[in-house]
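<goal> How does this chain fold?
<body> The protein record starts here
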Amino acid sequence: MSKTDTMNAGGSAGFILLITIVATLGGFLFGYDSGVINGTVDGLQQAFNSDSVGTGFSVSSMLLGSAIGAFGAGWLADKFGRRNMLIIAAVCFIISAWGSGVSGAPIEFIIYRILGGLAVGAASVMAPAYISEIAPAHQRGRLTSIQQVAIIAGLFLSFVSNYFLAKNAGGSTAEFWGGYETWRWMFWMELIPAFAFLILLFFIPKSPRYLMFREDTPGALTVLRKLFGEPKASQKVKEIETSLANDHKPSLKDVLATKASGGRVFRTIVWVGIGLAMFQQLVGINVVFYYGAVLWQAVGFTENDALLINVLSGGLSIAAVLITLATIDKIGRKPFLVWGSVGMFITLATVAFAFSQGELVDGTLQLPGQMGLVALIAANAYVVCFNMSWGPVMWVMLGEMFPNQVRGSGLAVAGFAQWITNFAITWSFPVFLAGIGLAAAYGIYAFFALVSVVFVIVMVRETKGKELEDMVG
């Protein structure tokens, strides 16, 4: 059904887009909260006098909260609703942004970052699930991809904010407004979008599929009429009823394999979701997002230049996601994943080679000739490859690949795996930097990019154009 057809039937394409934008503000905050730490690393080291291991844990502590938030929100959403979990996440974003900036000790900072992580984890799985449950099948990939646009926009604006704050103050550790260090203001800037997210969530409806799970058919029908009009709304209610009639209400145990399937702990579709979630992180993307400033300073760039490179990476990321958003419902999900993995392998291997040519001089990796430029171009090409493929498509897949009754619990398990892997990669990078070096670290990420090609070809099934009620596994 086209936009015009939807409008003529009494539904509203504009209403669907508005709901999507509000829901993806959670993705924006996910990106902002993840990216803001990038410019604060020097400030954290100075304020808390921490070594590489301690800094790595301060930076990655949010990810432990994210793992818990993703698992808890995915499971609790089947009981309390997708929108309600997003409201709780918004409150956590606000408390975390304020607390991270006022922290005076490492443990205090870590507690607030873990709280922010709960919000990030909840938003990361709930926004795609919510959008997939209100979007028409033929637009679902495009609308769910807006989540990744929002994530990258959040990252980008956090990089821009960090850059201008540090530039105007004279550095991330310099005093700024009110006598507070600049890195604290980097966290407090997040309060503006966090409050906007909280307020706007009260103006969007509950998921119609969640309402059907809770046996509120009239409420679900009302929402579906606003979304799609008649007779599509009544048809969709019948499809959801049929889906639910064939099974029981959603439960966390639905992710477990049956004896008939061989008893492999989880259902096959859940293992595929776990694999998608883990490979998205094993390719090392968040090393660029969390440690970009540190990385480029390590190869000779100034702090100001390193922060400016982050802004460039963020802008390229947005452009890449927009290309995917425009074509994913035509091309499909699987081709993007395959070619994205191939591109990431090539670009990561190039970065690893460039770094392998350098020598340590007074603790800084000096790259000969044009190798610094090669590393910079390849790293940004890698970011483009990721954000045209695994960045948005993994979230699209997780939001739509599970059958209705498994969606919340499947997202809980896959989201938990995603954030635990994110934590491991992020925490290990400062250790790699001080130990095996940049070249070996990027060689490891390139290896996982290559393995992910095989995983997608063998394990992943295309979901383009399928109704959520038709998903099996």
